Every structure is written in C-alpha cells, then in structure tokens.
C-alpha cells in the first residue's frame, strides 16, 4: 500500500485532500493528514476571533470522510527527508510515507526585536488567537492596545477590535510612511480616513526596537500599554526553516516548476512554506494545491508532465469591521460596504462548499 502524507490541514492541505478524494485514486493508495487541530481552521478569520467578534466555532471546518483517508492528531517534531518518515510528538513510531506534502504554514516573524516573542500576542495560530481574545476581552475600560504592523492583518485586527471594544485606546504602529503599503495610495488613504473617524491612532515610520511586559520602545522611546498584538510579518514554520534544502531569502523552499523539491521529487510543498511569485495567502495556497493535484494524478497515471500555467489570483479583500471594507478585484479597487459584502460572500461560499 502506497502512502501519501499531508502535513497540515490549512488552505492548501485541505484543497489537496478534497480534490484527491473526489478523483479516481489508485487502488493501492492511502492518504493520511497530520495536524494539531482535529478540524480545518480558517486562518484568515483569526483576527475576528482574537478581537472577540466571532466564536471559535465560526472558524472551524470539518475534514471530509472517505475510506482511503485517515487523520493523525498531533504535532510534527521532525521531517526526515532522507528516510521518508515523519516524527510526531508522543507517538512511539515515526510515520512513514511514499509521497509527502508539506503544508505547515507560517509563524510570526519578530525581526530579532528583543522581547517580541515573549511579551506580544499573536494571531498566527488558533491557540494564539484564543489567547489573544482572552487577554483583550479581559482588559479594563480605557485600556491601551498596541498593534505592531500596518499590513492587512494589522488593519483588520485594529478595525475589528475597535468594533468589539469601543472603550479601548488602539494604536497601530507601522514602519512605512503609510499603512497597507502593498495596496494603492487610494486604498491606503481610505483606510487611514476610516481609522481617523473611528479614533484609531496610526503611528507611521515607527521602529519597534524592544518589547517588555506592557511596554514597547518606538525609536527608543518607551510607551506603556496594556497589551501588544504582533502582526509585523510571517515566516515559514520552524521545521521548514531547518530543512537542509534550497530556500529563497524569505526561508521558503525553492521548488521545481511542478511544486516538488528538486532533490526529493516525492515531496511537494504548498502554501506559506513554498517559494512562489506571489505573497503568501489562502487564495495562493488553494490555487497552488489545484496544480499539485493535477501533477500527482498525472504521475500516478504514468503521464508526461506538461508545463503548468502561471498562477493567477483573483484579488484581495479586507474588512473594516462588519460594515466597511477595501480591496482589489480584477484590477479594480473597491471600498466601503460593497467590499465588505464581497468578503462576507466569499467567506460564506467557502464554508458552504466545505460542509
């Protein structure tokens, strides 16, 4: 019996699993998914879970059921590419594989800022989002929350928290001259205006040099706060960073044109751990997963691999609370209620299609 092991049930891992289970699979193939959570978690909504506007249940999606599929609950502790096996915490024997998909996702990147990993809150994992929610929910009235990082995650976190806790003082720190530097100036200005109207303070050209308990240092100046949420960048899972394979400058694994590791053609990498010509996102992971499945099926059928087309993304949507939003779809900038309704619709369709 041949065994395909998928590490991580994120957006890429789940899409691979779904597409394979709906295909005609080789009779001698079994598929095993390994994850720390017994359900798929919608990471794009962790900011709302952390802010307290949705519940834990709202970000869960059950894994499919199929006679060729089984699930292993646990934390991966080592990936042994030479011996084709995976070590899992509290499991006596390693899990052997014939083919492997690495989709372990990403972690916070702290940019070597002293104290950032110890004294800040995270929204990069469901456990982190739960802990962040608990801390923020228990803050006293008029508490001060610093959010470090003015990209998409930081903006959505700040706006959602403003809606959840209108009594809090919210400060958004960003290194650039404007927040949302990956978006157009028009969209950035729209979001900045929204923050001004909703009393969220933006601190541009900040440089967080050190973090202590309830204190951060911006350009050397100490600032007392009640909580700090870190949204200032991501990096691949630490096990991926430790693998002795070629990586790009972001520590993501360099792949062949067909998404496998050149030195290990039986090992594919999907999502945030893969070096791709786009910034990491759920949409990118799913589109890459579609291509990986097509490659797998052709190889199983003994067919020649054709050149894969470039991955094209539909756009990006962000929320500003429950009533406003922003984004780019098909090259067109969107702001206001239409953008928020579109994002809500995309989320509803995703959950419905995965029921």
UniProtKB/TrEMBL annotation:
Cofactor: FAD
InterPro entries: FAD/NAD-bd_sf, FAD/NAD-binding_dom, NADH-Q_oxidoreductase
SUPFAM superfamilies: FAD/NAD(P)-binding domain
Keyword Transferase attributed: no
Record's keyword annotation contains Flavoprotein: yes
Pfam family, one: Pyr_redox_2
The protein's name in its UniProt record: FAD-dependent oxidoreductase
Organism per entry: Pueribacillus theae
């Amino acid at each position: 019996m041949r065994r395909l092991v998928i590490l991580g049930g994120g957006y890429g891992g789940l899409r691979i699993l779904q597409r394979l289970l709906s295909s005609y699979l080789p009779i001698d193939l079994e598929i095993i998914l390994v994850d720390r959570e017994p359900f798929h978690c919608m990471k794009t909504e962790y900011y709302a879970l952390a802010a307290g506007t949705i519940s834990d249940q709202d970000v869960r999606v059950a894994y499919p059921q199929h006679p060729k599929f089984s699930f292993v609950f646990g934390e991966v502790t080592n990936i042994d590419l030479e011996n084709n096996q995976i070590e899992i915490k509290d499991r006596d024997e390693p899990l052997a594989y014939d083919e492997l998909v690495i989709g372990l996702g990403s972690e916070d990147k702290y940019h070597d800022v002293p104290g950032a990993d110890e004294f800040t809150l995270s929204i990069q994992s469901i456990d982190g989002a739960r802990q962040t929610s608990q801390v923020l929910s228990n803050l006293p009235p008029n508490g001060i929350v610093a959010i470090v990082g003015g990209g998409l995650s930081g903006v959505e976190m700040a706006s959602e928290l403003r809606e959840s806790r209108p009594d809090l003082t919210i400060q958004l720190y960003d290194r650039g001259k404007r927040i949302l530097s990956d978006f157009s100036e028009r969209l950035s200005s729209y979001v900045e205006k929204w923050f001004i109207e909703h009393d969220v303070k933006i601190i541009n050209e900040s440089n967080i040099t050190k973090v202590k308990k309830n204190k951060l240092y911006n350009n050397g100046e100490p600032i007392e706060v009640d909580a700090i949420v870190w949204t200032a960048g991501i990096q691949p899972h630490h096990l991926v960073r430790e693998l002795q394979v070629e990586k790009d400058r972001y520590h993501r694994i360099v792949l062949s044109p067909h998404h496998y590791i050149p030195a290990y053609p039986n090992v594919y990498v999907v999502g945030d751990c893969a070096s791709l010509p786009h910034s990491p996102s759920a949409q990118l992971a799913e589109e890459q997963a579609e291509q990986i499945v097509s490659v797998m099926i052709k190889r199983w059928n003994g067919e020649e691999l054709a050149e894969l087309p470039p991955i094209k993304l539909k756009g990006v949507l962000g929320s500003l609370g429950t009533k406003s939003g922003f984004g780019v779809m098909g090259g067109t900038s969107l702001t206001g209620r239409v953008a928020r309704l579109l994002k809500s619709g995309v989320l509803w369709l995703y959950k419905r299609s995965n029921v």
